[in-house]
Every structure is written in structure tokens, then in C-alpha cells.
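A student in our group prepared the protein record below, which I am reviewing. Here is the record exactly as it was handed to me.
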Amino acid sequence: MSEGKTASVGEQAENTQSASQEEECDTENSAVKPEANEGSTKQLSADMTYTCEEVHSRPFITPDSDIPENLLHLSHSFGYDSGRRGNLQLLDDTTLMFIAGNLLVLLDVSTKEQKYLRSCSGGGIGSIAAHPSKEYFAVAEKGNHPNIIVYEYPSLQPHRILRGGTERAYSFVDFNQDGNLLASVGSDPDYMLTLWDWRKEEVTLSCKAISQEVYRVSFSPYNSGLLTSSGSHHIKFWKMASTFTGLKLQGLMGHFGKTAATDIEGYVELPDGKVVSGSDWGNLLLWDGNAIKVEICRKEGRNCHAGKVQPFSLEDGQLMTIGSDGVVRVWDFEGIDSADSSDHSNKFEMEPMNEMVVGHNVCLSSVVKSSTPDSFVWFAQDSNGAIWKLDLSFTYTTPDPKCLFSFQAGPIQGLDVSRKSHLMATTTLDRSIKVFDFLAKKELTTSRFNQGGTALSWAPTLVNQSGGLLVTGFEDGVVRLLELFNPQRLHLASGRSVKGDAELRLKQAFKPHNAPVTAVAYERNGEILATGSSDRTVFFFTVGEKYKPIGFVHVPGPVQTLEWSPHSHSENRLLILCQSGHVVEVQSPDPEAQKPTKTFQLPELPSKVFRFRSIKSRIKREEEIARRQEVKEKKRKEREKRLKESKQPESELEEEEELPPIYIPDPPSPLCCGFYSLPGQFWISMGGFDAGFLYHCKFSEDQDQEPEQRQDEPFDFRPVHNADKDPICSITFSSDRQLLLCGMHSGFIRIYLLQPGDHTLTSMHAYWTLSSHDNQYGHLRHICCSHDDRFVLTAGDDGNIFSFSLLPPEELQKELQRKRAKVPSPRRGLENELLAQDIEDPAAYSIETAKQKLEKDRLRREAELKIAVKRKKLAELQKEFKLLLNNNQSLPEHVHLKPGELELDRRFTEQAERVKAQRVREVRKQMSWEEERCSRALSKLQDWFRNSLESNMVTVVAICSEHRVSTYRLTKTSAQHVHQSRASRPEEEQTAVQGRRKSKAEPAKSGSILEEEEILHAPKSRPAGVKLADRQVERLRKAAEKAEQARAKIEKRRQEWAKLYAEKPDENCEDPQDVHAIKKAKETIGDLKLKSDKDFTVPKHLRMNTERKRAELLGLEDNIRQKQTEMNRRIVALRDSKVGLLSRLRAQAEQVKKIHQRLPAHLHRPPPTLPYILPEETPEKRLQYSHATLERYRVLRDQRLQTMEQDDATSLLDQLEKVEENEKNGEERTPSLSASSVTGEEEETAGDEGAELSELEEELQREEEIRLLHEQDSLLEEMESSVCQFDAELQLLRHQKLRLDMHLKMADLRQLTLYQELLLVKEFEEREDSLQEKLNARIKEENNITSMLEEFNEQLALKRADIARLREREKALFSAFQASLGLENKFEEFLTKVFKKKIKRVKKKEPAEEEEEEESDDDSDEDSDEDSDDDDDDSSSEEEGAVDSSVCPPGCEPELFENTLQLRERRLDLEELVVEEKKSAEALRRECDTLVKKEKSMKSSRKAAEEDLELVYREKQQKMNELDMVVPLRLNQIEFLTNGSLPSDLSPALVLDRTELNRLQERIKQLQVEKSQQKDLNCATRQQHVRLLHDRKDMNTKIQELEEHCNQVMMMKYGQLVNLEVMQTLSGSRILEELKQEKLLKEAAYAKEIKEWDVKVEEAREALMEVTRCDTVRLRSMTSLFNQKNELENKLNTRQKKMGRQFQDYRRRVLQEDIQWLRDLVKTQCQQAEAFSREIFLLSHQGGHVLPPGQHPLPSIDPFPIPTDRTTTGAV
């Protein structure tokens, strides 16, 4: 490869750095444009590649160590991560590719050879994809900012590296149909969807896919601009759309609608844009747009597949699907594409065209097609650990599915190697055990069992010299011994051929445990086998031809590992490591010691216990102290150095940070592994918080404390580099103990080099590590070395098994080319041995359980044998004594021996009586406690079984049939349950707070603002001298009435407007009916979340607590009890009616009997059999007994004792009841028999006498017979009808009770469910109550703060309104002041200064306040001083001129001056009030700000409390959802049928209420009609809304026009804008009328005076004319003199020509000033003329009253002084 075609990884990382820039985008319509940088414009060469050495990850080696980099060499991979999603790709017809931990395996199908590629990041591989041309393949990795590497094939050279597509890991990658684009999607946390132009290493588009796990993303094969992604409970459809900002990704989330949300593993895009996806329950979903068009299932509602289903291909009009049931089915594409659901269901039924069953234990998860054109061969991934080759041509010649490779599925539970050969055995939970030849790299044999394997160990050579014995533990607690041998040699002797190189044969099976076996270990001498289990027991067995149990010991926790002490230790002990952190050391049991017979437990076996106590936090604390001490020492040296240089003291104060606290994890960290170091000492590795260290521990000498209470600390530790979150899971040593091999939790292999004999691990420093298994879930739990230390084998939880060699492959091949793994030969006679008996039942007894059961059976048999011997001896003695008695009785009477004579000696009898009496007393004394106990037990039994019942169980039996009906067994009702009311609800508190808030709302303070007062002085009372006429008085009265009517009308109109505005809703307000309808719709309509959803929020009215649930349960119980009580009442009533019926029947039978006495025998009709009351019909009589009953009981007991009959089925009480019943029946039947016999005798006598009767008597007798026959027939028919009617009533009641039993059974099921829910609610009650109390406290505080805030806001609003009113009063005061000045007041400026002057004022003190102010003199003095200072400053600053405001200037009216001073005082009062109100308002505002902050904090805390409470409700709802509900169904209600028959499994079925379903279907139609109606209504409402908007606009325009017109009219009429309402309410003023009258009088007087003055003016005018004539003469003379003066001036000017220019300039300036003065004068006079004209116009306007002018008074016109220089100029 040339250098020009090779680029380094660092350069490419720098060029493509911009591709990792990510921006958040909306999930529905968003995209991220790639930034323009150097990488985006750089052209990469088509044949450029990277070097593998630069790309692939390498092992990490401790720096400055001698460990070689190639310490381990990968030899082979034996596993397959079949559980990984999409872990199978095809590169060519013979090469498969899959991920194995940190390796990419390329497997040749034909030769089974493997090639490997390591991950580049070392963090694992996320996904792989093959290019459509098969020339490239992409490997998407995991780690911190992982890359995507595109490799060339078959050269396997890195071709392109794509960087920056996600943060942690890639979950899926895929090429488009052309192969020029690559789509990738990341995993948590970013879930970034990225489209790459991978040839240029550029990001084309990027966007966040969704906030949950994405399984798959792919391009549409029919439209390159469309993509589809799917994953956890979602599917999303993407489109690359061109917008004005560029190309963007637009995503559309798929809505499941009525279909349950499901994980979507696979899908197929259809040519018309539709998508077919799978589901979890096995049906196909057809997506059209972003909604499900139809759900496809098979006929009769069967699922397409059993379990998950994935469609994977659409070819030749056929859609192919795979499922977890191991079946491949082919469906008709046209049928699917045109599928449509019916009205009542969203499902479409169809049958597959073809199907292929791959296998019964097969779970297909992904398939890839062969690259050969027109090939029907597919390769399938089986999640159960296999790779299949399928031919999907579906022809007659189609071969069967072929399993190409078989692997173990799931985590590897056990791994061990042979002690003599290169053989390895593994086991997993898939119930298989495999044996491998890791030298030849092949699998030798596989055995399967009924349960999964959990532990495995290869027996040492001391136990089995051939090395062919395996010990395996299983999850059901069984341990099996398996023999491995070469079957070829076995069958050579028998002459039969066999396939395979090895075979496993069961040698022995035993079950020591009841839980999974977790560890097995052989003792160092091979004499004892120990097995450990998660049931906290360790069992010991003797090793031999047959393993025999020794015994077991209990340990404090589940067993993790077992390790026997090595040969270097003097004592043989077993180290038991428990997962709970306990370590137990027990002495090796002695197989020859005497064993206990009753149990296998070994209680006296010496043991020591160690319980780990965390010291990691203390280690970290000490390290921090040392680090700080080192830093301090360094700083001290630097400070001393600076002091020496500067020779000046320095003071430095440093604040030390707080040391990290001591932390003990609870629960304790789990123990991972451990091993012996020295006798009594051991090393352990802990997980969780305590990871990162190896702890050296030893057992304490004090072992008296309980294991659970112990707290033991390690005495030494070794830090493990970079392992705080990556604990060591497994540890092993090489045979020379110079290599310490560790399996890490992250899947890494770590190897330490140790010094020989280093048990304390002091040389554990340098290490070599390599990532092999998956870093997320591939925990490396098994690592071991081969017997010759040339191989290292690892197995992890990811299902992968790797073999590494310590030598290079070339050297290893040379050394081992002649060696092969040797399979042991079979034992002699193995072919003749019978197969060992296996334990196949998982519920079989363990060894200890079986022994306990045998011991109990033995004790029971011994007791029964002793009892039988005693009874036999007693029976013989009794028989002999009876024989003697019989012989005595058979003798003659005189020879009879009397009872006294049978006694040998009376003293014996007396002694026996005394002994008997003594024993009776002793027995009574001994039995006194038992007697009391029995009496109390009897009373308790009576209280429980008799007194606790409301009534006994009554059974009523029919008379003519066997039908019967019984009452219910009801207990007496207990005391009423006292329901305590829960804490007050937040709503009630809120209501109370609101009420309190209303009550606290107070008006403004009465003394805060001065009451409204008249600013203007009231006019002085006029003297009563003018008297109004009657006409004027009447006019005033009418004007007042008119004004009052106008005022009332205005007030009424104002109230109407106020009411109308009060009813006017807010602009953002909505109709309450609409709000209620929307709320109801949100609650009942739409895609509501189910209760099973994780995001379901429990509504408040559905939240259930203990009281409500108990009330619901009690209500159900009361309802059940009422129904049962009512039924019992009816049954008892029926029993009572039967008793009455029997009495009536007996009476009627007596009547029939009497009739029979008088009728001949041949006319008798047999009466019906009289029924009788059975004992079960009157159970209350069972407990009633008499002396006869007790006597009969004694007789029966004696008979029992004499016969010694052992009848278990019948007790004495039962026999007694039968005897009494028979006697009662006999008594009831005896009278009828005797009556019949008497009747027969009477009939005979009547027959004898009948022969002697006459004809008349015979006629009378016939009439009597006819009457008696009629009575007989009537009585018998009445009896029969009564019996039939009773039976009919009983039959009806029986049917009703059966129906009630059905309902009660359903109620019992409901009661059981409610009780389970009650128990569940009780579990959450404490948490819920605490959180509810916390929430209530938060709400109460928030309501208090809100109420206070509203009160302060109201007060603040009132303060602001008061301030505004004061401002208005200031303006009114100033207007009044200006009005008082009048027009052209020459003292206006002075009085204005006096009015505005600020003076120092003494605060007014009220008498009530003087005492309080005396108590606070200091504060008031300080305040007054400050105020006075302020006032002085203000007054001094404003008094610019020397104005004495206390003295009225000359010429000014004193009244006006005094009025100005009073107005100034009022102004100062108002200013003081404004200042006080502002201070109060500012204080209120600060309080409001503080409360707002508190309210925000309270809201956040309340919201947090609500969220916590909602989490509890959600968790409680999820727990309730897990409860099972029982719904009984009849067969006719089940419509879930398979091929016309009821399936055995009804779990996929859905239970629906048919009535509710019909209602919902009808509701759909109603909603469609309502939808159309709502659309029409919406259109009409929109039109009306638009019309109303136009009308409102027109009305506003009209209002504005009317207002303008009104203003114009007012200006024309009044000269200003006036308040018409005020004008309308103006009433006639008497003062005005008086002034008018006075005006008229004065006008008349003034007219007379004017006439007089006109005469005087005329005389003056004549005198003026005379004077004017004189002046004219004088002016003419003056003119002549003036002309002369001009001549003289001209002459003078001529003489003084030189000085003329100066005088000319001065003259010109004087003339200009005069001209300007004249102009100003003209302008001023014009203004005065205009003002006078306006005033005349206003005064002379006809109609209306004279109002004061709206503008300010006209300024006074000062006379313009004549400049003095004019006069001077004239003089000159």
C-alpha cells in the first residue's frame, strides 16, 4: 500500500470533527444541517485506506513494565451471542459475519475456519451491516464517541472511518439500496439518527430519532428519500425534505390508536409507501401514513405466529415472515396491500400461502439472503443458539432446514478444563453441556437435560485417573456425575460403528439441594466432594465408585464459591464464600465418623465466620489526608523559599475542605470471588461500592457472635487500578502461581505478574489487560488455564467462549503439532452396565428431605407396631376371662361362683379399688388443667361454631322428590366499623382560607386620608334683600324636579351598564358549558392511557386509600350478607310452611282414617305416605338432649368397648343420631299401621252387620257412602295438591338459590380481589399518608401565602387609589388657587411663590396619640429632626429671592393673601399624606415581593410533593394491575376458537362486555353524526364570529363618529367639552335667580346713570372740539418752527460732516428699536382685540347658562413703557 493512499486516524479525526456537532431538533419536523468545514469539502481518494495497526485497539500495559504486548494470542471463538439483535450478516455465499464481544468473526461455512477483527475503540461493537455490493461492510462500535469503520472485503482493510455520530454506542446501521448512503442510530442517551455520505466521511443529515431505544432503521428500497425506524413501543416514518434552509429530516411518529402499543423488531416497506410491521403477540400491522390501517391475523382470530413476528422480505408478490415459534410463513402481498378492516373490528383475516417449520425449539430473530442471483437460500439466526440454512423456494424438491452451527445460548454458567488434556466443558441455562477440543478448535459432544446447568467442575486425576469425570450442578439442585469417553473404542469391542469423537454418559445423579447449585469442589486429596447452593447449604459426599452423602452445613448466605485449602496448609479446610459478604471456613468432615441417623446436618463441624465490613471510604479518606499533607508540605517549602528571597514575613490563611465522610453501604456490597493466601487468611474481591480493591482478611479468634451481627474488617488491601466501577469477577492462577489472571466485570482480561511464593500480593503492580467480551453485559465470570499453562480460556455472560494461547500461533503449532487432545477411553465393562437412574422431576425430594421423611415413617411404623402388640395381648386376656365367665354360667346354679367368689382375695379388690381411686385422683389432678383446657376449648368451639352463627344450617327436603335447599352459614355481625375521617382535604383548607381572606378584607383606614372637603371657600351668605317672584320660584321648583328625574335616570342607566359590564366575560374567557364539555371530553373521549401504561396518571376521584377500599369491601360484604339473609329467611319460612303442612296433612289423614272406618274396604283409597321432618330440617334440636339420649349414648359406647370394633367411618354420635332417627320414624309410622288394622277390624264387623239392614237403611247407607267418597276424594286431592304446591315452591326457591349461588361466587371472587387490593393499598398507606400530609402542609402554607399576598395586593391597590385621589385633589387645589387669582392679577407671581413655598411645619398631634408619642420620644425626635432638616433644605433651596411670605405686600388684597396661605396649608397637608401613603405603599410592595418569592418556592415544593405522591399512586396502580382478575364465562360466551374448537390456552384472548361493545359500536355511529353536526355548527359559528367582528368594528366606527359629532356640537354650543350628565342634573339655583333679579335692577339703574353720563360726554366733546381748534393753530405754528429747525439741522449737519457717520449709525439703531416696539404693540393690541371678541361672543350667546371658560385666564397686558432714549433722541 502506498503512502499516498493511506491516511492516519488522527488526521481523519481532525477532518471529521465537525460531523460530531449535534443540535437538538423536534421529533416531528426537524433536521440538523452539517456545518461547513474543511472535512466537508475535502475530497477523499476512492482507493484510500487506513492501516489496521493504527485503527484496531491494543492491549493496555502498565508503563515501564517488562510485560510483552503480545502476551496472549487469540486462538479460537467457540461461542455465539445469539441473543444480540441482528447479529448475522452474509458477505458471500460461504462467509458469515457476526459479533462476538470485542471481536468481529468471519466464519467460513464450508471449512468452518474463522477470521477475526478487533474493535477499534475497545469498548465493544454495537452493530454491523454489509454493503449491497458485498465489497464493503460497516462496523459500528461502542464506547466514548465511537466510530463507524467501513472495511473493504475481502482485503479487510479499513476503508473509511465515520466519526461523531453518537455519544455512547450505535444500536443499528444500514446501507441504502444504492449503497451510497449509510444510516446509523445511536443508543442511550442521545438516540441520534445520522445519514452519512460514507465515501466522503461526511454527515448528510442528523436528527434525534426519539427518546427511547431504537432497534432498527432502514431506507425504503423504492424511494431513497424515505426511511423507517422502529423500536421500543414505537415506529417512526422519516422523509428527506427540501426546504428553503436546505435538506432536512422530517419524522412522523406512528400512532397505534386502538391497538395496544408493542415493540417492533422488524418491518417491510411496500412499493406504495405502506409499511408492514410485526408485533409482540404475533399479528402483522399494516401502516398507512402514520396510523394502523388494519391488523392482519389468521382465520378465526388466530395469530399469524405464536410469539413475536417479523416480516423480512417482499419478493414476487409474496411477503415472508419469521417468528419466535420457529416458523417461516409466506403471505399474499396483494391481499395484504388491499386489506381493509370491517366496521366492528380492526382485524383482517387471511391464511398464509406456504409455511416452513424450522424446528420446535427454534426462535428465529433475523435472516439474511444469499448473494447469488435468483437464489432462494437464506441464513437464519436462532436466538436459542444456532445458525440455520433455509431454502424458501417452497417446491416439492425443497430440502429440509439445515442447522449449520449450534452454540450455547445465554450466559455461560460453568466452565472448566481437563487436568490431563486440552479439553474444555461448559454449561448454560439452555440445559446443555458441551465438551470442546480447544486445541483442534472443535466441539466434541453435547448432552441435554431437563434443567439448565449452573455449575461445572472437572474431577482431578486423584479422583479419576483417566480425566474423564465431570461434576455438574443444575438449577433444580441436582448434581450429576458424567463420564466422558471415546465411543469409538467402546464400539470397536462390540463391533458396531458409531459417530462422534466423544460421548457423555450419566454415572450417578443425586439431589443434595432444593435450589440451584452454584459451586462444586473436590477436596485436595480427592476424597470428598463439596457442593454449594443458593439455599445457603454446603453438602459433603464421599468420593468413590458411588458417591455417598456425609452431611451438610448451613451458611449465612447464598454460596458463591468453594475453595479447599491447598497442600501447603497443615489442616484440610473448606473456604465458603457467600454472596452476602460472609466467608465461612469449615473443617473437612470425617467420612468414617458416626453419622446422625435422623438428619444429614453436621452441627458439631468446627467452623469460623467472617463478615466483611467496608473500609473503602476510610482508605479514600486516608489517601486524601496524605495528598493534602503532601500539598501542604510542598506549599510550606515554597513559602520558606519565598521568605528567604524576600526576607519579609507572609501570612497565609488557608481554609481546608471537609474530608470525605466514612460511608458504609447498606445493603452490603456483594462478594464476587476470593482465594486462600495463608492458613486462616484469604483474599476477596467485592462488587458494588467496595470495588477497586483486593482485601486481605483473616478470621477473628472471637467466634461467639452471631454471623449476621458480625462486623469484620480486612487487615490489608491491594488497590486495583481503574476498577472502582469494574470489580474482579473471577480469579485464577497459573500452575506456578506467577500469573494472576482476573476476569473483570466489564469483560476485560487482566493478568498480573507475581513473584514466586508471594501470598501477600506485594508484587501485584504491573498488569496486562485486553477487552475480549462485551463491555456492557459480557461479565467475565469464568477464566482458567489449561493443564500445561499454554492456553487461557474465558467465558462470559454474553455467551462467548474464547481460547487464548500464551505462545505465538507459529511456535504453538510447532510444539503441539504432534499432540492432540486425548479423549479418555471407556472403563472396562461400561458397555454392560445399565444406565444410571436420572432425577428428571424438578419437584423430587432432596437427600435431606427424603431422610427426614424416612425417619418420620420409621417412627410412625414403630409406634403402630407397639400399639398392635399391646392390643393383641389385651384381647387375649379378655377372651380368656370371657371364656371363664361362660363356663361359670353353664354350670348348674348351685355350683355357680358368685362374683365375690371369683375374687382370689378381697383385699386384692380393696387394694385395687384404693389404687384405682388414688389413680383417679391423680389422673383428675393431672387432668385438671386438661379438663379446664377442654372446657374452655368447648366454650370456644361453641362460641365459634354455634354462638357465632346467626342460625343453624337448615336443609328443607322436598316431599315427592330428592330436591333439597339449604340455608347459608352466616356468622353474627360484629360491631360497627368506626371509620375515622381522614385529614382535612386541601380543597377544604383552600375554602376556609378563601373565607378567611374575605373576612380579612378591610376597607382603607379611616384616618389615612382626609375626608373630602370643599377646596373652594363657600360663598358668603348674601343678605336677604331680593325677593323672587312666584313665577321664578315655580321655575326653580320644576328645574329641581327635572334635575332629580335626570339624576335618577342617569343612576339607573349607570347601574344597568355596571350590571352589563359585570356580566361581560373576559376576552380570554370561555363558555362554562363549553369548558364543562371539554373537560368531560378529555376524561371520556380520545386515546386515553390504560391503567397498565407506565405513564398512567390516576385521577383524583379514582385514587384509592385504605378507608375507601375497606368501605368498598365492607359494602360488598354487607350486600352479600343481605342477599344470604333474605334467602335464609325464605328457606326458613319454607321450612315453617312444611311444618304447618305436615300438621295439616296429619289432620287430614285423621279425617281420612275416620272416613275409612265408615266406608267399606273395597271403597278405600290408600292415603299418601305422610312425610316427616328430617333432622337436618331442624338442626336446633340436635343439641337438645335428654336422659334417654344420654342412656342410649352409654349403651352404644359400651357396645363399642365390648366389640372393640374400629370403625373410622362412623362415630358414636353418628350411630346415636341414626338410632334416634329410626325410633322417631317408627313412632311416626306406628299410628298409621295401628289405625289401618283397627279400620280393617271395623270393616269386618260392619260387613257382618250389613247383612241384616233393611232397604231404607241400605239407601241411607248408599247416600252416606257417596258423601264419604266425595269427602275422601276431596281430602286426598287437597293433600296431593298441597304436597305438589310445596314441592313447586321448593323447586322455584332452589332455582333462585342456585342463581344466587352463582352471583355470590362471583361476589366472592370480587371480594378476594378487593382483599388483595386492600392488602396492597395497606402496603402503600404509610408512604401515601406521609406524602399526603406533606402535600397538605405545602398547600396550606401556599394558601396562607396566597391569601396574604392577595390581602397585601388589595391594600396596595387601595393605597395607589388613595394616592391618585390625593393627586387629583392637589390638582383641584391648584386650579382653585388659580381661579382665586383671577385675570391680570399683578401679584400672581408673588402669590404663586407663596403658594408653592415649602416651610417647616410642626406636626399636629391628636390627644389620643400624645401618650404614645411620649413613650417613643427618642424616635419621634430623631424623625422630626430629619424631617426638619429636609424641610430646611427644601425651603432654603427654593427661596431664591428675599420674599417675606408672612407679610401681605402693599396693594394686594388681604383676603386673597389669607386664602393663599390657607390653600398652601392644605397643599402641604396633601403632600404629607402623599408621602405617608407612598411609604406605606412601598412597604406593602416589599412585603408583596417577599411573599411572591415565598409563593414560588412553595409552589415548587408543592409540585415536588405532588410528583412524589403521583409516583406512589402510579406505583400502587402498577401493583394493582399485576393482580389477577377471575371472570367466569360460559362456553357460549367464548368466541376465541381454533379450527372450530376451544384452544387449551386462552391467554391471548380478550374479555369484553357484549353490551358495552354494542354500545361502543352504536356510539361510533352517534359520534360520526355528532362530528358532522359539530363541523356544521363550527362553520356556522365561525361565520357568525366573523360577522360579529365586522359588526363590532362598524359599531366602534359609528361610536367614534358620534363622539366626534357630539364633541363638535358641545364646542359649538358651549365652547368647551362639558359633562352632559352634570348639566342634566343641574337644578335651578335660587342664588342665580336672585342674582339675575339683582342684575335687572342694576341694569335699570345703570341705564339711567348712562343717560346722565351721555349728556356730560356731549358737553365734554364740545369743549374738546374747542380745545382741538386751539391746538390746531398751535400745531401749524409748531410745524413752521419745525421746518426752521430742519433747515438749521441741515446746516449743522453740513458743518459737522465728519461726525455724521457716527450719529447716523446711532440714529438707525434707535429707529429700528422704535419700529420693533411699534410692531409688538400692534401684535399685543390684536391679541387683546381677539380675546375681547371671544369673551363678547360667549357672553352674548343666546340660550343656556353662562359657564366659566375652560381655558386659563388671559394673561394680563402690562403697559409697554416708552423708552427713555426716544425722548432723549427727540430732544436732540
User: Anything to note?
Assistant: Residues 344 and 1561 are 7 Å apart (CA to CA).
